[in-house]
């Protein structure tokens, strides 16, 4: 005559539904009282509360707020009258802590001494990813040796997203730093790492541009190599260009060319020089590496590229055609 439903697991700090269903709503009394009590405690987690089925209704669900407690197991006691029958039950309930995820994002991963480190922080709760506006009891930054260099206590979080920053010293400890946060409640501490080290940007860059396509019938093709400073001016130096046909054993062929370069230049390659169409091996891809040594400084930088060799010059694709072919009637397609 009746059914009572509720999840076996209740999440602390969130609401849960307790629902009652009856087959005959004409009964004079359809209501239950529920109480939630921890296994080893006399004080109830949720004191007795009544759930009343409205007159004429066959079903009703009541939302119950579960307090934030540390208990993991509890008993749900149910007493009352449904469908004209008196009921009394004790059911085991598992209490789970709410699912929370905290994200920390820095403006970059690698910093130089004396630079400003900026980061932001966001916490979401529950299966619907509700943004938390609870304060953070503690946020701190640790050096690679474990010393705290910055700390914030009881950080307000009214908007849900907080921003913090600090400036590194001119001679900081180099290595991997940690940003730590202790969220509210019993959530685990969360960390985000970044690195601090002295570094210099490369003086110039080497790029290798492969041909748009290489056909198996081509006798010659070219790669384009460029060596430019970070501000765009051409680099003068010695170019070493290596090309590998991707073969193995006796079919493997690698050629090395040396040229003087000033900015960009095309490097022509003869197909026969890499045995692109051998007696027992066809090349289907080639790999190129260009190394440039700058005149005067001897600094060396490299770039790589790969190109496929197409063995089919033309490819046809049917995009539309007549559905049926009829004898002695022209058939058209596209």
From TrEMBL:
Transmembrane segments: none annotated. Residues 101-196, 198-277 form the Macroglobulin domain. The keyword Signal applies. Gene3D superfamilies: 2.60.40.1930, 2.60.40.1940. GO terms for molecular function: endopeptidase inhibitor activity. The keyword Signal applies. Coiled coil: none annotated. Keywords: Glycoprotein, Signal. It comes from the Eukaryota. Heterodimer of a TEP1-N chain and an TEP1-C chain non-covalently linked. Forms a complex composed of TEP1-N and TEP1-C heterodimer, LRIM1 and APL1C; the interaction stabilizes TEP1-N and TEP1-C heterodimer, prevents its binding to tissues while circulating in the hemolymph and protects the thioester bond from hydrolysis. Mature TEP1 and to a lesser extent full-length TEP1 interact with SPCLIP1; the interaction is induced by microbial infection. Binds covalently through a thioester bond to the pathogen surface resulting in pathogen clearance. This is TEP1-F. It comes from Halocaridina rubra (Hawaiian red shrimp).
